[in-house]
């Protein structure tokens, strides 16, 4: 159901189809819906790696459906079956665009939307609970584009020179400069806790005081913090330069940091004396958001996949650590995790 095939056989339109009533389609819907349920649970529990694994499962389900139906063969023997396969596969592409957006970024999903003849907006990139045929019969598709390009040998060499280091550096004790810490972390005090109407067993909708502003944060911690009283008044760490997202239809403007290790799960807590809005730093690292001459702070807006690259763990004394070497702190006072043990991952 790649756009070139659909364009050649169906005039670049979503073809008229037989819906999801066939045996193959019913089986696909059951498996996709079960995976979507697991995907939502993973993201709500901030299990980002598990969410990515399930997204790949969804991709494989779509590929298996397409290969089994083989519309490039059935188009001659059973045109209605080929048309149904193409329509379903195109709708699966739309689903995969939003499922992979937290990992690949908005530019990736916007490109897929463009090829499907859709406008990419915050509302249109909502991840559904179940699989539906959202591209209707006769919907015009966009022009096909390459999603990924080949990296040339010259580019590989340049990347190795920039990031790979050398054996001489490894043995001589010469090291690259300390990394910048690009996350805008601030102390936030939880001042209100409300259940999420669409996920009452997993999500809390928090109002967090950040000093100069209040933000709404959707947090998938209800399984571990079942009562509002367990959260109210806590001073936590908020990622403030994360791109706003919609979780089950409710906007979340940032993310509350938590730590997890096997069955353990707990919040990352700021010093009780720290005022809301205070900056959280990683050791003595320079910060790309700090302006020369005391000119304040500016930070790039991070996609979730970019924030995931920041290596945060729980170290000795349950202190949050960046790259196991730089303790998270507020004016020298440590940021610590609760309810977990050393080695837990912060996410």
TrEMBL record:
<dbReference type="InterPro" id="IPR009080">
    <property type="entry name" value="tRNAsynth_Ia_anticodon-bd"/>
</dbReference>
<dbReference type="Pfam" id="PF01588">
    <property type="entry name" value="tRNA_bind"/>
</dbReference>
<protein>
    <recommendedName>
        <fullName>tRNA-binding domain-containing protein</fullName>
    </recommendedName>
</protein>
<keyword id="KW-0694">RNA-binding</keyword>
<keyword id="KW-0820">tRNA-binding</keyword>
<feature type="domain" description="TRNA-binding">
    <location>
        <begin position="179"/>
        <end position="281"/>
    </location>
</feature>
<dbReference type="Pfam" id="PF19303">
    <property type="entry name" value="Anticodon_3"/>
</dbReference>
<dbReference type="GO" id="GO:0006431">
    <property type="term" value="P:methionyl-tRNA aminoacylation"/>
</dbReference>
<dbReference type="InterPro" id="IPR012340">
    <property type="entry name" value="NA-bd_OB-fold"/>
</dbReference>
<dbReference type="GO" id="GO:0005524">
    <property type="term" value="F:ATP binding"/>
</dbReference>
<dbReference type="GO" id="GO:0004825">
    <property type="term" value="F:methionine-tRNA ligase activity"/>
</dbReference>
<dbReference type="InterPro" id="IPR023458">
    <property type="entry name" value="Met-tRNA_ligase_1"/>
</dbReference>
<dbReference type="GO" id="GO:0000049">
    <property type="term" value="F:tRNA binding"/>
</dbReference>
<dbReference type="InterPro" id="IPR002547">
    <property type="entry name" value="tRNA-bd_dom"/>
</dbReference>
<dbReference type="GO" id="GO:0005829">
    <property type="term" value="C:cytosol"/>
</dbReference>
<dbReference type="GO" id="GO:0017101">
    <property type="term" value="C:aminoacyl-tRNA synthetase multienzyme complex"/>
</dbReference>
<dbReference type="InterPro" id="IPR041872">
    <property type="entry name" value="Anticodon_Met"/>
</dbReference>
């Amino acid at each position: 159901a790649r756009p070139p095939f659909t364009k050649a056989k169906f005039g670049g339109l979503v073809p008229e189809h037989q819906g999801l009533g066939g045996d193959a389609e019913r089986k696909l819907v059951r498996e996709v819906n079960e995976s979507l349920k697991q995907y939502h649970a993973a993201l709500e529990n901030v299990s980002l790696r598990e969410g990515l694994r399930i997204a790949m499962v969804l991709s494989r389900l779509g590929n298996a459906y397409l290969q089994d139906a083989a519309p490039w063969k059935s188009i001659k023997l059973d045109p209605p079956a080929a048309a149904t396969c193409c329509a379903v596969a195109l709708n699966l592409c739309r689903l995969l665009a939003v499922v992979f957006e937290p990992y690949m970024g908005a530019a990736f999903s916007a490109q897929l939307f463009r090829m499907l003849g859709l406008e990419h907006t915050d509302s249109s990139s909502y991840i559904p609970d179940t699989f539906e045929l959202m591209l209707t019969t006769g919907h015009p598709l966009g022009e096909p584009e390459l999603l990924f390009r080949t990296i040339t040998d010259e580019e590989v060499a340049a990347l190795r020179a920039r990031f790979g280091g050398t054996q001489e550096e490894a043995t001589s004790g010469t090291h690259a400069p300390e990394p910048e810490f690009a996350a805008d972390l601030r102390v936030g005090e939880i001042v209100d806790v409300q259940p999420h109407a669409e996920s009452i067993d997993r999500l809390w909708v928090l109002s967090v005081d950040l000093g100069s502003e209040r933000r709404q944060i959707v947090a998938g911690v209800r399984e571990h913090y079942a009562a509002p009283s367990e959260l109210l008044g806590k001073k936590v760490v908020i990622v403030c330069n994360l791109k706003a997202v919609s979780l089950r239809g409710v906007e979340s403007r940032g993310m509350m940091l938590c730590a997890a290790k096997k069955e353990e799960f707990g919040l990352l807590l700021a010093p009780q004396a720290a005022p809301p809005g205070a900056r959280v730093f990683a050791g003595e690292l320079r910060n790309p958001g700090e302006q020369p001459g005391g000119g304040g702070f500016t930070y790039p807006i991070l996609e979730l996949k970019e924030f995931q690259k920041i290596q945060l763990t729980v170290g000795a004394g349950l202190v949050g650590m960046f790259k196991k070497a730089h303790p998270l702190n507020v004016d020298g006072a440590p940021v610590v995790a609760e309810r977990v043990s050393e080695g837990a991952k912060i996410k």
